[in-house]
Amino acid sequence: xxxxxxxxxxxxxxxxxxxxxxxxxxxxxxxxxxxxxxxxxxxxxxxxxxxxxxxxxxxxxxxxxxxxxxxxxxxxxxxxxxxxxxxxxxxxxxxxxxxxxxxxxxxxxxxxxxxxxxxxxxxxxxxxxxxxxxx
Length: 135
Description:
Elements: H1 2-38, H2 43-48, E1 58-59, H3 61-64, E2 73-77, E3 80-84, H4 88-98, E4 103-105, E5 108-111, H5 119-131
Antiparallel strand pairs: 1-2, 2-3, 3-5, 4-5
C-alpha cells in the first residue's frame, strides 16, 4: 500500500502540470491562429459585436477620415466616432487630440468630443473600444 500511495502522489502533480501546460499551449495557439487567420479587428467588428451599440452604428469613413484626420476606417455611434488608424502612433496622436473625452486602444481611437456623455455612457463607450481585446 505504501508503494501505491507514493506512486499515486507522484503521478497526480505531474498529470496536473501536464494538463495545465496543454491548456496554456492551446490558448496561445488559438490567439496566434486568430491573428493569422482573421487579421486585426476592424471598427465594424468592434461596434457590430457590442449589444450597446444596438445596430445604430453608421460608417462615416469617407467623411471622417479626411486628410486632416488620416484614419482608415470610422464608424459613428451614439457614443461618438470610433476610428481605426494605420498605426498605433497615429492612433495615439489622435487620442491625445481627442483629449479626455476620447479614448485609445491599439490602432483605434474614440472621438467623443461634444457628445456630453454621462459617466455610465462614457464607461460603456470605452468598454466597447476595449471589448475586442477581452478586457
